Each structure stands twice: as C-alpha cells, then as structure tokens.
Amino acid sequence: MSTHTHPILYTQQGELAHLYLADNSPPITGRSFGAPTPTSKGEVVFNTGMVGYPEALTDPSYRGQILVLTFPLIGNYGVPDTSHTDEYNLPKFFESKEIHIAGLVVSSYSWEHSHWAARSSLADWLKENGVPGIYGVDTRALTMKIREAGAMLGNLVVTMPDRATMFSDPNKRNLVAEVSTKTITTYGTSNTTSIIAYDCGMKFNIIRYFVNTHKVKLTVVPYDYDLEKNPANIQWDGLFLSNGPGDPSMVPQTIASIQYALQLDPPRPIFGICLGNQLLSLAAGASTYKLKYGNRGMNQPCIDLRTGRCYITPQNHGFAVDADTLPKNWKPLFINANDLTNEGIVHTDKPFFSVQFHPEASGGPLDTAFLFDKFVGHVRKISQPLVLQDGLAYQKKTYKKVLLVGSGGLSIGQAGEFDYSGSQCIKALKEEGIEVILINPNIATVQTSTEKNDATPGADKVYFLPIRPAVVMDIIQKEKPDGIIVSMGGQTALNVGVELWNTGQLQKAGVEVLGTQIPAIEATEDREIFSQKLAEIGESIALSYSANNVDEAIVAANKIGYPVLVRAAFALGGLGSGFAADDAELKDLAAKAFSASSQILIDQDLRGWKELEYEVVRDSSDNCITVCNMENFDPLGVHTGDSIVVAPSQTLTNSEYFMLRKTALKVVRHLGIVGECNIQYALNPKSEKYCIIEVNARLSRSSALASKATGYPLAYVATKLSLGKDLVSIRNSVTKTTTACFEPSLDYCVLKMPRWDLKKFNRVSNKLGSSMLSVGEVMSIGRSFEEVIQKACRMVNPALDGLEGIGSGLTDDDIPLDEQLSTPTDTRLFAVQRALEEGYGVDRVHDLTKIDKWFLSKLQNIASMRNACMNCGDIGKLFGENGEDRMRSLKIAGFSDRQIAQYTKLLPLQEGSAQVRTLRKSLGVTPCVKQIDTLAAEFPASTNYLYMTYSGDTDDVSEGLHSPIIEDNGEQLTPNKAFKTRVRSLSVSTKHHNDLNEKKERGVMVLGCGAYCIGSSVEFDWCAVSAVRQLRRDGFKSIIVNYNPETVSTDYDESDRLYFEEMSLERVLDIYEREGAAGVMVSVGGQIPNNLAGPLAASGAHILGTAARDIERAEDRHQFSDMLDDMGLKQPEWSVLSSKDEAADFSSRVGYPVLVRPSFVLSGAAMRVASDESQLRNFLGLAADVADDKPVVVTKFILGAKEIEFDGVANGGKILNYAIGEHLENAGVHSGDATVILPAQKLYVGTIRQIKKYASAIAQALNITGPFNIQFMATGNDVLVIECNLRASRTFPFVSKTLHANFISLATRAMCGLSVTPYNISLLDIDYVCVKAPMFSFTRLRGADPTLGVEMASTGEVACFGDDAHEAFLQSLLATGFKLPKANASILLSIASEEFLYEFAESAVILAKLGFKLCGTQGTVEYYKKNYQLDIKNVAKPVDENDNASCQETGAPSALTEIKEGDVELVINISEGTTRKDEITAGYLIRRASVDFGISLVTNVKCAVWLVKSMERGFANFKAKSISEFYSLHKY
Questions:
Q1: Could you say which of 535, 738, 757, 1367 would form a disulfide bridge with 1014 (CB–CB 3.0 to 4.6 Å)?
Q2: Catalytic one among 18, 115, 214, 358?
C-alpha cells in the first residue's frame, strides 16, 4: 500500500529522507517534502523565528546552510507570488531572487496552506528551486544538540549517500562571492543623496528602505568593487556595508575598500549591518571569531550602550566581533542582553558605526529602524540629536507598604486568572521587601491564604471585605499605604481605582497608583477618548460612536449602517452587549445595556474578520516588547473569551505579524502604559487591512493564558515594572540567566478552549456572540494542531475521547447541520467536525463558518483518519502493515488509546484502551517530555514546566529514579491486566512503601482541578496548592498535573515538576510510570481526579489516602445508601431506578416532590426535583443520558429541612478535625449556592452530637484517610444523611481560613503516611462568625431564571467576617456586588405562598418603618394590607416580557414598568416552587427584568429576612478589620 495516500498516514507523506551530522551520531530520519535531490551538504544551523520562512529562505546570509526552523508548524500560509515585483524590478515578497539555504528541516509540514496572498505551497516552491526539505524531525532535540555541540556540518539526503563525500564545509567557500551582485545597479536615480552599498548578500528590503523610506540614490556594487580606484566613477556621500553569509575574513577586497574609506578627510559616513559590522571591525583593526551556534531569529534583545534601552532585533550570523580588540577611538555601541556578545561598534568622533542585527528586518521587528535615520542624517550633514539616558534609573521611588485590590468572587468574564495574577504580584512585592495589604473577599483563592514562608510569601494583611470605593478608602485611612495596585483585580479593581482617583480621594490620602496611571486607563475604557488617542498616531478603531440615550444610539447605528454591535462602556467581558439588525432590536438591547453603564457604544459589525491579540509589556524607560500573540479560531463576532484561541498565530505572514506588533508598540507607548496590557485587532482575511478593537490596560484573562503559553510571568514582571524597575534588569525566571526584556520563541503550539455550563440553565440560548458566556477554560500544548485540539476536547469534557462529530452526542439531529455550522454556539466545533466526517469538505464548511481554511484542513485530517480507522474496523488489520508508522501518525494527530479502541471495536473501552496501550508500547510508540523554556531551546533552562507529545523522540528531562509501583488491586476493581503484566517485572516490593526517604525521592503526583466550571472552581486549586506546598515542606518531590491556565497550581514555581497535561487515565499513567511516583493524590482536585481513582487503581497505580474501593462505595449512590441502611443511619427514603414505572410507583408511595439524581455527579449535574409523575418521567430520561450507565436514584425530597455541611480530615477511619457549617437556606438549595455560616449559630446541641456520631461512623466504615465532606439535613432533632464525598469539598478553604487551620495540609500529611496531630480547635473560643455567600452570573446568562434549586448555578463565592452573624452576612452579600436600596427607594415584593408571606411579614413591617416605599403584586399587597395594615402600592403581574401596560381592571402599573422606569432598587420575589403556570411565568419575568436592569434581587425567604434584619441593625456601616484581627480574638 502506498504511504502517500493512506489517510492514516497523512504525517508520512513523501519519501524517506535522512539528515546525517558530522558528529557520527545515527542519521535523523524523516520524510521529504522538498526537491528530491539525492544529497545536499551544508552547515546545520537553527532559526527561532515563528513566522517569515519565505524571507528567511531567500536571505543570502543563509548561503550554504541547512536551516532548522524551531517553530514546529511550517508551510501554513504558503508562499506568495514569486513573479510579483516592485518598481525596482525586485521580488516584492522576498529578500533575493533565489532560495539560498542548502536544505530545510522542520517538525511538522502543513500540506494544506491558507492565505489570500499565497500562490503556491512551500513544498512546490522548494521543488522549483531544487532545495530539499525534511519533516517529522524532533527539531527541539536537534536544536539542543546544536546549542551544546555548536553548529555542525550536515548532509540532507533522500537516497543513500557516498560516505566519502558526506560533508562539505560551506565556510571554506567564499560564500559572499556566490551571492554578491556581478553588476553595478543604481536605484532611486531621481533622488539626490548618494550612497554606495556593498552587496555582500544584501537583502532586498534594505534597498527598499533606503530608496522608498529615505529617498536615497543607492548604487549597489559587487563585494570586490575597488572603492579607491572607483572605476565606474560613482559619486558618493556615504558608504553602506550589507549583510551576507560566511566568514568575514574571506573578503579582503571589501575590507581594503572600507579601510580606504576610513582614511578619507573629511570623513564620509559609514554604516554596516550584520556581516557589515564584522567587516567594519576588521577594517578598523579589530578581530572576529566564530560563534558556537550563531544568533538566528527575530527576538534577540540588544542594549543600546548610549541609553541603556533594550531593543528586540532580528539576526542571522555565525560570526561576531571581539569587542576587546577594538582599537583606540572605537567603542561598542550595542551588546546582546542575553549572552553579552558585541552587537555593534561606533567611532567616538567620526560618523562611522555598524550593528550586528537587521534594523530593516524582513523578517522580524523594525524596532531599530531609527539607525537608518541616523546614518542618512549623517550623510545629509543634518545635526544628529544627542542621545542620552533618561535618568529614570536614578529616580526610583521606594515603597514600604502597598495595597493590592483583588477581583472578588468568580463570575463569568472575571475568574480564577486574577488569583494567579494577584499571587504573582504578591510574590514580586515581597521580594522587594514591601508590606502587602490585600483586599479580596474571595475566600477560595490562594492569594488570600494567610500561611506564608520564604518559599511562598503571602500578603501581610488580608481584608475579606466588599471591594467598594468606600471600603477601600477605609482600609487606606487605617493602613496608610504608599501605593495601590488596581491592575491585578480585573474590572472590579480597575473601576474602584478609577472612581477613587477621579474623586481625588487617592491624591488626598497621598497614595500613588502603581503601574499604568488612571488617565491612561480611562483613555482605553472611554471609546471616544480612545478613538481620539489612536487618531493622533494615525491608527483607527472600527467605526464606533458612543450614545448617552436610546435616541442617540439609533442615530449612531444609522450612521454606521446595520447590523451593529451594541456594548456597554466600562463593562467587563462584553457585559450588556449584542448585535442589532434594525432599530427595534437596537432599542431592546440599548435599554438593557444602559442598566450596566451610563454610556453605550455602537460599533461597526466586523463579523468574519480574523481576531488577534498581542500581550504587550512596557517599562518606565520605554523598553517595550510583545510577549505573545494569539489568533482566534473563530472569526470576529464571538467574544474572545468564548473562542478557541491559538498561540502563537498560525495564519499570519511575517508582514502581518510585525505590522500588528509595530502598531501595538506604537499604541502602548502613546497611551503611556507601564506594565502589561492587551491589544485586540480585527484583520481583514483578504488583505492587510486592520483596525483596533480595544486595549485592556490591565492584566486580563488573556494575560494568564499568555503567561502559561509562553512561560513568561506577566503579572510578576508587570509588578516589578510598576515599582519603577526596567525590563533589562529583571531576569527571565525560566532560564534564570537571560533578561526579561525579550520576546519568547515558542517551539510548540498552544490552544485554549472555553468551558461552558449553559445546559444548567433553562431558557438560556447557547448562541455565542459579543457577551462572554464561558465559565472556565483549558490550555493544551503540543507540536501539531491536530494534537492540541484533540487534547483540549478531552480536557474540557473528560467524557470525550477526542474531537469527534458523529457519536459525540453534542450535535443536534433536530437542527439542520448547515444551521449548526453558520450559528456560533458552544457545540459548533463538533458540528464542524461532523460535517467534515460526513464529507462536506473544507470549502463548504468555510463558507458557512468563516473559520480559516488552515484550521479546517487540520480538522479534515482528523476526520479522514477517524473514518479510515472506522472503515478498517479491526486492530490487527489496522496495524498489521506499517504498524509503527500508523500508530505514531494517529498519536501525533492527538488520537487517544480509547478512540483507537472504539474505532476498532475493542469493548468494553477501559479494557480495550489497555490493549491498545500494550500494543502501542510494543511498537515503541511512547510520548516524550518537552520543556517550556521561553527561548525554543536556544539557551539552557532548568525549567520544570513540562508537556508530553508524540511529535518528538527525545525527552528534555530525565525519568524518575525509581521503577513504577504497580499494585495488585484485582480484588477491588476490574484489573487492567495488560498494564500490570507488563510492569510487574519492574515492580518494587511492598516493604518499600514504608521507606520514607524513598517516598520523598519518588515524589507524589497531585492531580489538579481541571477546567473551572459551575461546581468546581478556584477552591479546588487552593486545595491542590495547599497539598503541594505541604509536600514540599515535608521534603517530598511534588509533581502536579493540571491543564487550567487560570490557576496558581500551574505556576511552575509551585511544584518540583509541573505537567501541563490532560488528566485522562492514559496520560496520568504515562506520567506515573515515567516518574516512578510513590503515589497519586486524587482527593484535592475535585470530581475529575476523584473519578480517576477506580481506573487508576485497576491499572495498578498506588492511590494515596482513602482506597479507590471505598471512594466508589461513597460515590455510587446505590452502594452508599445500602451502607447507610446496614449501619442504621437515617437518610431520606430512596429507590434505585430500574424502570420508569417502578420509580413512579415509589414516588407515589413516599409522596412528591422527589429528587432524581445519577451517581458520580458534581454540583448537582442532572439533578432535578420532580413535583408530579409527568415531570418525573421527563427527568428520568435526562438523568439516564447523563449518567453513563451508572444507576439513577430517586429520593424523597424533604421540604423545610435545614442543611448542614460537615468537612473533615480523617486518618485510618478516625476523624482528626472537623467543621460544621450551617446553611441559611433550607434544604433544596444546592450546597454550592447556599449561604453558609461558620461556626453554626442555630443548631441544637443534640443535632450537633448526632452529626458527629454519624460522621464518625461513616469515616470508620469507609476507612477514610484524607479529606472528606458529608452533607446532612435536620428536621427538628432528626438528622438525615444526604451524601458523602471522599475528597476535599468546595468549602475546605472557607473552613480552613475561618478556623485558622489548614485542613488540606493536615490531610496531605495523613495521606502520605506521616504522623499527624489534630489542630486544637475550640469552637466555643471563636468570637467571630464567617459567612460564605454565592456569586452568580445571571446578568450574562440571557434568559436564565435567577432562582436557586438543586442544580448549582453560582460561578463563585465570597466570604466576610463579622463579630455578629448578621454583620458577616450583609458584608458577604455586598461583596457579591449586591446593592442596598438607598433611603426612600421603592422595594417590590412578590411572594407566592401564605407560608412565605407570614415568614416575611415582620421584615415587611421593618422595611416600611425604615422609610422604604413598598409595592407588590396583587396577592402580596392584599395579604399585607389586610393582616398588617401596610401602605403598599399594587403593581400588575406581567404577562410577557413586553408587558408594560397597566392592569385594565385595577389600573395598577405593570411590575416591569416599575422595574425598568421607576425607582425600584430591590426586588424580593419568593416563588412557591410549584408548577403553577402563572406563578412561574410572572415571577420569572419579574426576576429576569430585575437582573437585566441591574436591580438587586432576593429569591429566598430566609435570605430576605436576614437582609432586612441586617439593614435594620445598621450593618451596612462597619469598621474595616483584617483577618488577623479576627484571629487575635481566637483564644485557643
């Protein structure tokens, strides 16, 4: 069978090719994609640029060299038209008229390219020019070899060579003579200033720069032109020395002419670049030497020795000037900030200078193009300005105390990324010896941890208080900080900073805003100022107008032309935005947007354009760099937070990449940003036309992604810069030796995929647009696009085995596939894949989606390979021929063992994937480990930041010192026989388990939290970080596995080894085997790692803590309920579902309502309360779909019960410590959405005793070691068990910080088998209360009903402390963003049942006494008027969302009108929770309108009563106290 055509072998197209190296190592094998030349000899060098291969290949400086490109994905944008010339008859898109390299070596070649300017593929172009290419090479390993051994000779062969003539050294040839012009040519003949240019291999862009930009008459002469004799009698005012290949000493003729020019009096200006720098040095009397491997790339940082400024430069040279040999009157002009080699020289009193880099770039940045200005100025005898240091380095301020403003609770658009950035900020401040004061009520975060040591410094004081201007000022008055940082806490912190600055309060208090100043921030936030600022530098945003009312909005929209984008100014993550197609839609959207902001923006619709982002860093000395650029997979129109994002960009040419980079630097400098910011662009997919969308003058979600994607710690560096430090003096924290003033080179591809939870909300559309809806994200790393997108699918949804359309369950058979493609939704990717699997073709899918064809061609590869495997259908047949090649091809394309097992019908899948794993390893196909080192292996890095890939054959780091521990868990769970048999020979005896030193050496694997979603959020990252920190304190090697870029656990400083990897069984076993770890900790990362306990144990892995068998007994509802019955512990009546009829009979017997829930759930997924039989039957269908063959349990739902949270740590079945938290709301509200009070305030002593007794019995029965959580409900004195989780729960950080005792640290020691002493916690001695409140994102979830139920809906949490429970409750409520009604405002009451009306009655009377105007719906008004004689205005229940009319019978105004137009500032809407149609409809409309128009809403009667009581007692006013002040009350 031909390997050219088989779809499984798309990575194996082309003939076999070999790269032989002169060090006698075995040849490197790959596949040919260029000219089929038998042999091509040259010097093997590498280039770290991420774009610009057409420019590099035609650069004469590469003459005779075999070029290795470190960026793995090459050929993406094809090659432009080679016949297209400019006005000087030079090829427009290239640097010379031919390819100069001897051969090209890449990791992955893109057979399909996509770009509007492309006219051929890279492969075809290489063939036309007779240049060979090889792909499928581990280019990172090859780069590391060259780095260590130096540039070496090589031979690229497609057939077997003759060993006798294997190598040829191009440096022994006069390469300059080969590439120099043979004739004299003058360009720009009409220009007056005359310059001679020596062509030693001059790039065409130099000619264009001189003639077009500087209007010079440029005469280009051969390298050996005798300037002294000047036979052509050329008139010249200045001399330019070009770049070129090879050894500068090989061209004595050029050197002689330069020496003649140096002696002229008066002197004529001389300027050299690259080889020209070396030639000028030799002519002046200095010497040069060959570098070990040269500097070739686009990101070399060079320091201007006149100013100390650092510039990013493109370079391509193998020789350097020895600065120590420079004669008198010559000085170094630039040095390399990384290796300190010479980068330029200058004469002290004559106009002679040269640089080692390319100021004209192409490819690369143009940051030093001003050197051409200087040279041409000299030639024209224009006085050159004196260049001096700015002196800022000597004006550094010192700060003693800084206030850091956090972001508060997690919400859609503002999530865990700010915990990461805040933690980095604290670390940077503490390194400078600064006292750090933090305000952040998000108790689940790592940054609010009070434990600190030298390794993990924390804030000195933490205030768990609402982030509001008045509160921040209270803290400032109390703490008197020198500075405040508002750029690390998202829009919340920024808005507070802006308000305090604009009201003059910060200035009055003498507090300095660190980093970017408020006027610059406002310039980015206010569209009109922003547009004006951009116009000042010749840049523009998309057509955009601001409007202060609906009429102005309509005028603006008609100026631009429909459709338009409507957005609220000063809003986060596109809050209050959407697209309007006409005046009517605009009016509706504008009304909602005005509730979020006083100003709205009407923007041009650019849907279909490419969306790109650059992360930019600038210091106060004006050093400016771009750290990362990112390209959205989805075209513009989908909020970038909801788009798949790829870093670096894959479809931009060198011209586009550096055009946008140049603009980014220009904009950031003009705005005066100091620190980090993010600039977003729209780029026309058919031209180089672009416009700027926005600039975020703060750390953003993209900043966290960029930090993890590149290894460049943006928040850390931005903090240092805000203190006045410069980029050059800060070290690269990965290499430890190079400067932070550099632009990372990536030799891998990164993909961010969002995670949505829209299915949890009824009535919410899953359409994606300009308002962000995702609750979390994942990041995958690999060396092929197919690999990273398949990895990301498994990360975002562990139920997926990879990227599949058919069979994924994520496409809708009821909606036409074309419609699913043309409408962006949370599942469109799977519809795209289905279309490709069904044969749509790339062009048709592109027409419907506008997704770039390059991305689609990669998805087509996945679809073709899947279909080929399915058609084969048998594993023996699939891998019988070319087995290793086929398996490697599938793995390079990101296919999991489970996918291969499924396609070849190896069932059940767990055993089938084990068979595939065994076969794969027998074929020698295993993943290798690579480092993220920021510089594409150009410099050594001892980084522990790792990923795994099949696109490579060499590991960057060594394996663990010990063989893997394989346990026989056959009696527990289904054994993975293949795995155990294979490794049993390596297994160590069990006595080693007790060898503590060996355990510490082996290390512990901690599985992190995965993607944030509703139910699993930053609290589990806190747990993982706490575990890792405890392991390190106890001397254990710590190995963390996680793939969430927003987390602190994925900061490479936190662990000894960080695997940024998927948490599939396959990959966790890969890491476990490789590291030889002492065990795996599955209980601190939430449900995803917990679900792996059984499969890991079955595969022989050692699970630390509670046994997998016991975890399953607790997780499986049936087993757990049986166990409780056997133990005589009470629980609500339950039944296992075996049929719908049986369930209906049970429900009728115990009485409705009943709770329907599957096993193995997190955050109430697929849990429903059924109020009658029809609902029950409907919900059973839903639960069965979600449950994945696990049993479904139906439970009696008890109304009016109190829910109680028990968090504990046990060791060997004995409880060490515990905390009992009380839910404010009655049972029926999911525990994640409940308001939790700790210590519990209103529990009977008997209830507490019973809870402790039950918990102790359960811990013993399940033999728990480690963290666990039990939820109870109490009715009277009766205690019932709801569920038990044998893992950390979301309340662990809350209880640990409240009780000042880290439960996870204790659990970690217990799980590692260390001796543990319980904390001495006496609840009687705790003189304060902490209340945890949920944070919701209903404003973003258009259509969602903002009520609470058994399905979790909150996206985050906050907690505040108080001397009194009501004080803590009100502060935590305010910390969620809740706004209290102002004096005399209206409060709307709509309460469904008489029971609730009675419960709230006292509160209603209090509200009236407090002076609020009350209005209510008819039943509520009648009840309170009749029974309590309250003066309460009647409003009519709405019929639909447009029901603004008054009631015809009573004349009462519509409730919606009161909400939208009246002075209602609080809505208390308590629904009955029944299925009465009118109640749900009218109540829903009132609740939804409250959320849409930014009005505070309370939907739970208990919370409403507490709110009113807290308001009555005046707890809105309080004294700011830090957590340490509360702890000082703690007398145990």
A1: 757
A2: 358
H or E element, residue 1275: strand 1266-1275
Rounded distance, CA 1070 to CA 577, Å?
45
443-480 pLDDT, tens digit each: 999 999 988 777 778 999 999 999 999 999 999 999 99
| Cα separation, 671 vs 516, whole angstroms | 9
Exposure string (b/e) for 1279-1290, b if CB count within 10 Å is 16 or more?
Answer: bbbbbbbbbbbb
Selecting among 43, 55, 95, 360, the annotated active-site residue is: 360
Cβ neighbour number for residue 90 with a 10 Å cutoff: 16
Distance of CA 21 to the CA centre of its chain: 39
- Parallel/antiparallel/unpaired status of strands 1496-1498 and 1464-1470: parallel
Residue 274 annotated as catalytic: yes
For the chain, how far is it from start to end, CA to CA, in angstroms? 78
In terms of pLDDT, which residue wins out, 323 or 540? 323
For residues 31 and 11, give the distance between their C-alpha atoms in angstroms, rounded to a whole number.
9
Q: Report CA 296 to chain centroid distance, whole Å.
A: 29
pLDDT band for position 1155 (50/70/90)?
confident
Q: Long-range pairs for 454-461 at CB < 8 Å and ≥24 separation?
A: 455/1029, 455/1032, 456/1029, 456/1054, 457/426, 457/427, 457/430, 457/431, 458/426, 458/430, 459/404, 459/426, 460/435, 460/436, 461/436, 461/437, 461/1522, 461/1523, 461/1524
HEC readout, 1165-1185: CCCEEECCHHHHHHHHHHHHH
Angstrom distances, CA of residue 409 to CA of 440, 477, 618, 1347, 1498: 8, 25, 29, 19, 18
Which DSSP helix (H) or strand (E) runs through 532? helix 527-536
Nearest to 218 by CA among 198, 244, 201, 248: 198
Q: Do residues 936 and 140 touch, judged by C-beta distance below 8 A?
A: yes
Q: Is 360 a catalytic residue?
A: yes
pLDDT beyond 60 at 3: no
- Listed range (205-209, 898-902, 1229-1233) with the worst mean pLDDT: 1229-1233
If we measure between CA atoms, which residue out of 1132, 1160, 1136, 1159 comes closest to residue 1146? Answer: 1136
Determine the Cα angle at 507 with ends 505 and 512, to 5°: 115
Phi, psi of 388, deg, nearest 5: -130, 160
Q: Is 872 a catalytic residue?
A: no
Helices (H), 25-165: 53-57, 122-128, 139-149
Contacts of 180 (CB under 8 A, 6+ apart): 199, 200, 201, 222, 223, 224, 244
Residue-level length of the chain? 1532
CA distance 1529 to 867: 67
Instruction: Exactly one of 274, 624, 869, 1330 is catalytic; name it.
Output: 274
How far, in Å, CA of 513 to CA of 1353, rounded? Answer: 36
Q: Which of 433-442, 749-758, 1443-1452 has the lowest mean pLDDT?
A: 1443-1452
Q: Distances from the Cα of 122 to the Cαs of 57, 72, 99, 118, 129, in angstroms?
A: 10, 14, 11, 10, 11
DSSP, collapsed to helix, strand or coil, labels residue 1491 as helix
What are the beta bridge partners of residue 1330? Answer: 1238, 1361
Q: How far apart are CA 1477 and CA 1347, in angstroms?
A: 16
Read off the pLDDT of each residue in 1033-1046 and give the average, rounded to a whole number. 96
Following DSSP, what letter does each residue of 734-753 receive, concatenated? TTSSSBSSS--B-SSEEEEE
For residue 759, the 8-state DSSP code is G
Residue 165 pLDDT greater than 70, yes or no: no
> To the nearest whole percent, how much of the chain has pLDDT over 90?
71
The DSSP H or E segment spanning 257 is helix 252-263
Tokens representing 377 are 């100025």
Q: How many angstroms separate the CA atoms of 176 and 152, rounded?
A: 20
185 Rama class: left (phi>0) / alpha (psi -120 to 50) / beta? beta
